Amino acid sequence: MTGLRARLLVAFVAVTVLGAAAAAWASASAAGTALVSAAQEQLTAALAGQIGAVAPELTYPPDQASLDRLRVAAGPDTLVTFAGLRAADGAITTFDLGAVRTAARDGNRLVAQRVDADGRPWLLIATPVVITALDGTRTPSGIEVYAARDLTAVDRQVDGLTRSAARTAALALPLAVLLALAAAGSVLRPVRGLRDTARRLAAGDLDARAVPRGRDELTDLTVTINEMAESLARMQADARRFAADASHELRTPLATLAAVVDVLESATADLEPDARESARMAITEVGRLTRLVEDLVEVSRFDAGTARLRVEEADLVGTIRDCLRARGWTSQVTLDAPAELRMPLDRRRVDVIVANLAGNALRHGGPPVRVRVAATPAEALVEVTDGGPGLPPEVLPHVFARFWKRDPARARTPGSGLGLSIARENARLHGGDLTADADARFVLRLPRAVRS
Amino acid sequence: MVAILLIEDDPLVRRGLELALSRHGYDMRTAGTGRDGLRALDADVPDLVLLDLMLPDLDGLEVCRRIRAGGDLPVIMLTARGDDLDVVGGLEAGADDYVVKPARPAVLDARIRAVLRRSAGDPDGIRTHRDLRIDTTALTVSRRGEPVTLTPTEMRLLLTLSASPGRVFSRQRLLEDVWEHDYLGDSRLVDNCVQRLRAKIETDPAAPEFVQTVRGFGYRFGPVQG
């Protein structure tokens, strides 16, 4: 799971669950409040009704018996007082009635208050009993009724509501995860596409493009990346065209130089020492320049994609043997190979690879230089090793880089600095590869069935 | 003295090659354009033409085609790029060999000598294969009594193959025997020359009777009995 995906997921789930929880909590508490107030109303109305049914029949001032009657009518957990008289039942006696009493007396009306006792919720109700005369005038009778009503059942109902709200919120969680995954996917798919495109561009595939979809910020980014890729490709094409044109232009004067060098060479014997040395240097450098330009032309062919493999059925071992013999290396290089290995290959390109590897081993490595040829059913392996010190770790990543020279002081070697790069391109053109390790062991792999 | 006509547009390259090849003992004539070159050919026929492919007026390929249409004069083309398209185009136009610029005069000299040697046979009389008659002394070929004109390279190829009917020659072998190339000769020279030869001596070049392909190995001379 990518970081962006995880973050999107967490954010989405958090928002969804918090939203669901808040909505559930709000509706549960609203429902609870409504439930409680309805219960309170119902309880106080019931008590008022019970008192109202008995009060007119009471004698006034009431005696103990009247108070008892009123108390019975008001139900259990009730206290009725009048002056010094009181009639009480149940749990009411355990409550502190000071606050409700004061409120009821001050307002001369019914007062209800929620209290908790012994871990249970109660509703304490206090009301003065009012006598209504025949002419409608109301006078306080001095009788006060106190009642305690158990709210446990109501609370349980409220708890149930809260629990079911929590359950609803919890149910939203997996749904939120699914939705978040879908949303993250739809956001991340184009991001992933962009990442893949950028990765291919970074790997050098300048034909890579992302497909812009829709009309959002990601589409803008996609278009921008494509534009960037195009300008990169343009710059690369310009650079390559320049290299190709430059090497081509260099060939014409080199053709003249190469033609007259022999004439000059045959005349050097008659020159004064200084002039002779100068002429010799010119001749040597023309040779170097020619090789360099030839390598540049070869490289620009690879860059332009115009390098073509010319495959024919040939003997790999014979090609390697010819390569070593033509350069006079037979005595310095040990060839350890089967008598013959026929396979489709481009002889010229294999010659270039082997000449480069063996030449490097002879120049930069140490004896014994050995070329080993082995074959599996799928591929041929050519391994070039030498007895030299190998390649330092800081050199290894650069051995196939163009114009990379290990030691600037030793830059003036006979090579162009392009040889290994060309060798590797040639191997890849065959569908094979060329690799090097720290022991300066170069391994060329060539598939035995080359596309022709 | 062997006469060579060099057709090359760049004055310095032209003069450089003229200087260098003169020292190798050739009678050098030069032309700066394709038309001038063709005119010079009409005036005085050389032994061989060195032809640059990039010419300003008349394309080197066209010059080569016109030389071929007119006869069997050997042509070595000089290609500036050595690009495959140039090489293939030149060979299809009928060039006998090619040299990539910049070229050492010693290399050019070797190629010129090799091409010229092809005209000199190793006479062993007359070979007759069905209705194909090869006179190895007079270096003439006829098919059903009709004379067939071959260039020196085509002739040398036919002589080499027909000297051992049925024997398979690899392209590499033919490059060494006919073109006298080193170990890394371009096998397209062989394939192209085989095509041109077939066009001249075969009844159906697509189903050759005399110059047969042995897939993956090379060519052999037929008809093979059995």
Molecular structure report:
The complex is a heterodimer of chains A (452) and B (226). Helices cover 54% and strands 17% of the residues of chain A. With 452 residues, chain A is of the alpha+beta class. The two termini of chain A are 43 Å apart. Chain A has a 5-stranded antiparallel beta sheet with strand order 2-1-5-4-3, sandwiched between helices. Chain A has a 5-stranded mixed beta sheet with strand order 7-9-10-12-11, with helices on one face. Chain A contains 9 helices and 12 strands. In chain B, a hairpin with a 4-residue loop joins strand 7 and strand 8. Chain B has 226 residues and is an alpha/beta fold. A 5-stranded parallel beta sheet of chain B has the order 2-1-3-4-5, with helices on both faces. Chains A and B meet through helix 5, helix 6, strand 6, helix 7 and helix 8 of A and helix 1 of B.
Distance between the termini of chain A: 43 Å
Could you say which overall geometry of chain B the principal axes of the C-alpha atoms support?
A: globular
String of helices and strands of chain B: EHEHEHEHEHEEEEHEHHEE
**Count of DSSP-assigned helices of chain B:** 8
Summarize the helix and strand pattern of chain A as letters.
HHEEHEEEHHHEHEEHEEHEE
Low-confidence stretches of chain A: none
Strand tally of chain A? 12
What is the count of DSSP helices of chain A, taking H or I runs of 4+ residues?
9
